[in-house]
């Protein structure tokens, strides 16, 4: 697994779980199919500027500093803007075509945008398929995705 993908997963795990130790983080990574040494996890935490913060109970857990998360999102959006070729729908789902090997990163950018009406995303090499909750809002969803490019 590439460093960027692993670090993105670490940010997601820390955002979604209260993680107190690197061992807990390592266990969650393994459950997600990622094996990483303690040294790698420690280095990732340092590079991502993840901090331990104290809860009201006096315990400490890892937390993401917004500026780190924002800078990663900015990088994702920059890739999205340069990699997306087309965004359209086929009356059933939204289909996004990208340059080769960028669909997964572009799909992450769409996920981070938290666009309404998206119920699921599948990304391949150069194509992203987006299932929607309400087909009557396909045009709106396409425009919402295109707004990331602007």
Helices and strands in order:
Blueprint: H1 3-16, H2 22-31, H3 38-47, E1 51-54, E2 60-63, H4 66-83, E3 84-89, E4 93-98, H5 103-112, E5 118-123, E6 127-132, H6 138-149
Antiparallel strand pairs: 1-2, 3-4, 4-6, 5-6
Helix pairs in contact: 4-5
The mean pLDDT is 91
Number of helices: 6
User: Which percent range fits the helix content?
Assistant: 40-55%
Distance between the termini: 31 Å
* Percent of residues in beta strands: 15-25%
**Most strands sheet:** 4 strands, antiparallel
Descriptive terms for the model:
single chain, 6 strands, alpha+beta, about 150 residues, about 50% helix, about 20% strand
Short description:
With 150 residues, this protein is of the alpha+beta class.
Description of the structure:
The protein is an alpha+beta fold and 150 residues long. It is built from six helices and six strands; from the N terminus they run αααββαββαββα. The strands form two sheets. Strands 3-4-6-5 form a four-stranded antiparallel beta sheet. It has a two-stranded antiparallel sheet with strand order 1-2. The longest helix has 18 residues, at 66-83.
């Amino acid at each position: 697994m590439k460093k960027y993908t692993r670090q993105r997963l670490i940010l997601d795990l820390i955002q979604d779980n209260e993680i107190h130790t690197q061992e807990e983080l390592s266990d969650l990574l393994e459950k997600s199919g990622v094996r990483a040494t303690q040294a790698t996890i420690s280095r990732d935490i340092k590079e991502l500027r993840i901090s331990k913060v104290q809860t009201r109970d006096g315990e400490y857990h890892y937390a993401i500093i917004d500026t780190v998360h924002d800078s990663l999102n900015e990088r994702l959006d920059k890739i999205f803007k340069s990699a997306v070729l087309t965004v359209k729908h086929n009356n059933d789902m939204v289909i996004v075509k990208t340059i080769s090997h960028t669909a997964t990163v572009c799909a992450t950018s769409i996920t981070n945008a938290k666009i309404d009406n998206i119920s699921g995303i599948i990304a391949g090499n150069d194509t992203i398929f987006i299932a929607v909750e309400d087909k009557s809002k396909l045009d709106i969803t396409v425009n919402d995705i295109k707004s990331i490019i602007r």
